[in-house]
Amino acid sequence: MIEYSLSINPIDDELASLKIQIYDEQGKSDEVLKSLAISVEKNPNNKYFLEQYARVLARQKQYDMAIVNYEKALAIDPNFENAVFNIGACFVNKAVDIIDEENKKIDANPKYKPDETRYFPLLNKAADYFSQYRSNPVNKDNLGVLQQLSDIYLITRQNDKFKKMITDLEAAEPANLTNAAYYEYMG
Question: Which residue in 116, 50, 117, 119 sits closest to 87, CA to CA?
């Protein structure tokens, strides 16, 4: 039913997300990946198929391939918000995997100095995409994006940008008065 509906309306992101979720919950991620690969092959200029395909690749931790497909979607539409946000998240996730590797090296050898050049560029690229996403006034106060940016700037020691994010987070308090996650993060 979802496949049929998406063939009629491929831009229905909620339906595409539902399809991905159903396949994931059934343990059929490979099937949705194959289905989307075929859709991308048949429609290489369809930004929605490219973004959906990239999203599944990212869920499977195939970050490099996901990034390639997000970039293809953004080449078609540089302001495609789903792709802008998700490629930022993909760069963060790729960086986190590298940070985990570096932390294991520290655990094995406390004198080991982490190689920040392996993950700082990824975090900076993520910050660029999250900033682009945030440039749309609708997304300016998106709590998740503010948190991502503040974390990135803290890790990469970009103190001026970090302080700006804290100011922006503080300004977001009125919209988050009943949001416990907001106060937990601010703590």
Answer: 50
- Would you give the DSSP letter of residue 4? H
**Helix, strand, or coil (residue 80):** coil
Pick from 74, 77, 173, 85: which is nearest to 136 by CA?
A: 85
At residue 38, what is the residue type? I
Cα–Cα distance for residue pair 92/63, rounded to 1 Å: 10
Question: Which residues, including other chains, have CB under 8 Å from residue 139's CB and lie 6 or more apart?
Answer: 81, 133, 145
Mean pLDDT by 10 residues, the chain (187 residues): 74 71 78 83 89 91 97 97 97 98 96 97 98 95 95 98 97 94 94
* pTM reported for the whole predicted model: 0.86
Check if the beta carbon of residue 146 is closer than 8 Å to that of residue 169. yes
